[in-house]
Amino acid sequence: MKQVYEFKEGGKEMIPILGGKGGNLSEMVKIGLPIPYGIIVSTTACNQYFKDGKKLSESLKEEILKNILTSKLSVYLNL
Predict the structure, then answer these.
(1) Are 42 and 17 spatial neighbours (Cβ–Cβ below 8 Å)?
(2) CA–CA dist 47, 34 (Å, integer)
(3) Would you put residue 60 in left (φ > 0), alpha (ψ -120 to 50) or beta?
(4) pTM for the predicted model, two decimal places
(5) Are 18 and 52 in contact (CB under 8 A)?
(6) Cα 29 to the center of its chain, rounded Å
(7) Integer angstrom CA distances of residue 23 from 52, 58, 76
(8) Of 14, 28, 45, 79, which is least packed with CB atoms within 10 Å of its CB?
(9) Phi first, then psi: what are they for 6, rounded to 5°?
(10) Segment 13-71, tens digit of pLDDT
(11) At a CB cut-off of 8 Å and minimum separation 6, what does 4 contact?
C-alpha cells in the first residue's frame, strides 16, 4: 500500500488520504503555483505511526527515503 505521495500526485479528491494540507498543496501545484517539491505522508501511515508509539515502520522509512532521493536526483539532473 502506498504511504507517501508527491504533491503532483494528489488533489482535493484525495483529502481523506492526504489530509487537508496535503490535498490543498497538491491542488496548488496543479494550478501552477510555485510550490517547492515536497512529499505527503498519508493519513493512514500517520495514524499507524502514532499507534506504534511514534516509531516509523521500515516500509514507511524506505518510501520516505526513496522520495527524498528521487527529488534530490531530479533537482540535480534538472528534470
Answers:
(1) yes
(2) 30
(3) alpha
(4) 0.85
(5) no
(6) 13
(7) 25, 25, 27
(8) 79
(9) -80, 155
(10) 999 999 999 999 999 999 999 998 889 999 999 999 999 999 999 999 999 999 988 87
(11) 39, 40, 41, 42, 45, 60, 63, 64, 66, 67
